[in-house]
Structure to design on (502 residues):
């Protein structure tokens, strides 16, 4: 065996030396050591800070604080389908992905809630205080008649629901028995993509199950709620893991498992966890008030697309465009107006409209924030004292929801007339003809729409529209931003490219 290995090694060295000699254009063999040095170049990659030798030390430290959550369902709980426990409403998930996204607090092998001796289900959770407060998912306990938690030492104890927050899918429980309990802490900083995570939970009722992986992505929006900001992890997560924690290499909670993407219902390496900073903020309010109240600006916003950025003269498509402000709201009182682009909150850059919503919702009513915004190409700031987000979001909206609109030059594919001349109102410019091949049609402008303003200036005649388009072109804009009202009275912003073709 030894001599065979040596012969093979020498043969390998000889082949490497021959290859090196040929590459150099030299007829003789290069020394073996030189050939090996060329075959094994030095790599710039350094050893990882936390080599994955074993996760046993982390697991031994935190596993006693992870619990299995057992729920007896009330009579209103559905046996199957979206909206029931373990299967929340997925209507906002893109249709092509909806069948793959599953909440998995209580799913059985076929996607239906797992049944036990009584009508019930299972999930996971973790203890966050010495007196027995437990974090889990809202969808695990939202229709619970009673709740029990099973500790790592096999004790099963009754618990009560302190409060839930459906918008983030977080729930807080309290173990009824007095005593002291092992607990874990939330991480002090957000994980980075590529960081190790260790997940512990109760998949398919198999409590105390440990899996590991990395953070695959951050900021995922899967359409599950208005404040989606999930961590994506590749640790194997399955039904029953709902509400279970993800730990970093220091044994701190960095996420709470809440959903998976899977064609079969089992793990395919696509799991989604609520970031610890979100969970911690929600839990603090649930513990104090039993409910979550969120900050409220009183604006309708939309993303800044590239076209909109071009029309506003922005270098990058960042920030949140204000579609409308409702009279009497904090934003209106602070002077924010339709067309403003909110770029920062308390000095921190806002990348998009979704981030602004999450940021404001994460603050308590009464908090004063400084908003940096852009108006007509000029930067300004406003201090806003946040109100309380209405329970019914429809009450927070104007009857006219602003969105996007387009311009009306003939080369943009629009025929225009004064709105009052065609019976479509007393202000604005009516769209009486649309070229289906024109830039305006591509942006959704339709016959019967009314253009209210162009580039922030009110218009009442086709010549007003043409003048504003010409001004935008003179300023080097690649697109022009308009506010348009449709036949239902809904207004929106639209950025239309300034085509050079006739």
């Amino acid at each position: 065996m030894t001599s065979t290995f040596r012969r093979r090694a020498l043969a390998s060295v000889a082949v490497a030396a021959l290859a090196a000699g040929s590459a150099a254009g030299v007829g003789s063999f290069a020394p073996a050591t030189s050939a090996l040095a060329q075959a094994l170049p030095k790599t710039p990659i350094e050893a990882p800070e936390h080599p994955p030798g074993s996760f046993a030390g982390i697991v031994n430290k935190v596993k006693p604080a992870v619990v299995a959550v057992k729920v007896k369902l009330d009579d209103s709980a559905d046996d199957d389908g979206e909206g029931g426990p373990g299967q929340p409403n997925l209507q906002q998930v893109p249709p092509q992905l909806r069948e793959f996204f599953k909440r998995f607090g209580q799913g059985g092998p076929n996607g239906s809630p797992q049944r036990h001796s009584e009508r019930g289900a299972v999930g996971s959770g973790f203890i966050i205080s010495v007196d027995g407060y437990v974090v889990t998912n809202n969808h695990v306990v939202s229709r619970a008649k009673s709740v029990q938690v099973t500790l790592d030492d096999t004790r099963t104890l009754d618990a009560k629901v302190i409060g839930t927050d459906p918008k983030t899918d977080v729930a807080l429980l309290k173990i009824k028995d007095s005593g002291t309990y092992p607990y874990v802490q939330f991480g002090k900083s957000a994980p980075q993509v590529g960081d190790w995570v260790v997940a512990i939970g109760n998949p398919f009722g198999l409590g105390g199950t440990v899996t590991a992986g990395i953070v695959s992505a951050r900021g995922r929006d899967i359409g599950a709620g208005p404040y989606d900001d999930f961590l994506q992890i590749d640790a194997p997560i399955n039904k029953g893991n709902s509400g279970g924690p993800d730990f970093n290499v220091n044994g701190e909670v960095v996420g709470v498992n809440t959903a998976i993407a899977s064609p079969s219902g089992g793990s395919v390496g696509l799991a989604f966890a609520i970031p610890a900073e979100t969970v911690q903020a929600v839990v603090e309010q649930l513990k104090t008030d039993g409910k979550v109240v969120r900050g409220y600006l009183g604006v309708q916003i939309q993303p800044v697309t590239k076209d909109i950025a071009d029309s506003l003269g922005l270098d990058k498509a960042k920030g949140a465009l204000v579609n409308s402000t409702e009279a009497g709201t904090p934003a209106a009182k602070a002077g924010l107006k339709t067309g403003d682009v909110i770029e920062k909150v308390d000095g921190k850059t806002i990348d998009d409209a979704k981030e602004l919503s999450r940021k404001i919702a994460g603050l308590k009513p009464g908090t004063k924030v400084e908003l940096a915004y852009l108006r007509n190409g000029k930067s300004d700031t406003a201090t806003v004292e946040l109100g309380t987000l209405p329970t019914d979001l429809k009450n927070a909206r104007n009857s006219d929801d602003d969105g996007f609109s387009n311009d009306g030059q003939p080369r943009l594919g629009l025929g225009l007339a004064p709105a009052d001349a065609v019976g479509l109102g007393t202000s604005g410019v009516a769209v009486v003809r649309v070229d289906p091949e024109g830039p305006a049609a591509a942006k959704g402008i339709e016959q019967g729409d009314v253009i209210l303003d162009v580039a922030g200036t009110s218009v009442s005649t086709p010549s007003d529209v043409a003048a504003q388009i010409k001004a935008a072109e003179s300023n080097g804009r690649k697109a022009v931003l308009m506010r348009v009202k449709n036949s239902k009275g809904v207004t929106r912003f639209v950025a239309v490219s300034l085509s050079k073709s006739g």
Residues 1-42, 79-117, 392-410 have pLDDT under 50 and may be disordered. The CA atoms of residues 202 and 358 lie 30 Å apart.
